[in-house]
Amino acid sequence: MPIYEFECAKCKERFEKLCGMSAGTDGIACPHCQGNDVRKLISSFYAKGVSGGSKAECGGCRKSSCAGCH
C-alpha cells in the first residue's frame, strides 16, 4: 500500500497516511484537529534506475556504484 500526503482544509496541517491506491478521503481525519475535510496532495517521488548495463546513474553521477555517493 502506498503512503499518501493529505492536507486539512480546516487547519492546513499536512500529514501522511497509508491507504489503498483507490481509496478516497472518506474516513480520513486530520491527526491535528480531527477535521474530516481533507484533500489528497500530488506528491513527487524518486525512482532510481540503472541504465547502460551495470552503471548506476543518480543525479549526474556516472559511477558504477552508489556506495561512494553518501
3D structure, described in words:
- With about 70 residues, the protein is an all-beta fold.
- Helices cover about 0% and strands about 20% of the residues.
- The chain contains no helices and 3 strands.
- Strand 1 (about 5-10) and strand 2 form a beta hairpin.
Largest sheet: 3 strands, antiparallel
| Mean of pLDDT | 78
Q: If strands are numbered along the chain, what order do they take across the biggest sheet?
A: 2-1-3
Order of helices and strands: EEE
Helix content: under 10%
Strand percentage, roughly?
15-25%
Which structural traits does this protein have?
20% strand; 3 strands; 70 residues; mainly beta; 3-stranded antiparallel beta sheet; elongated; 0% helix
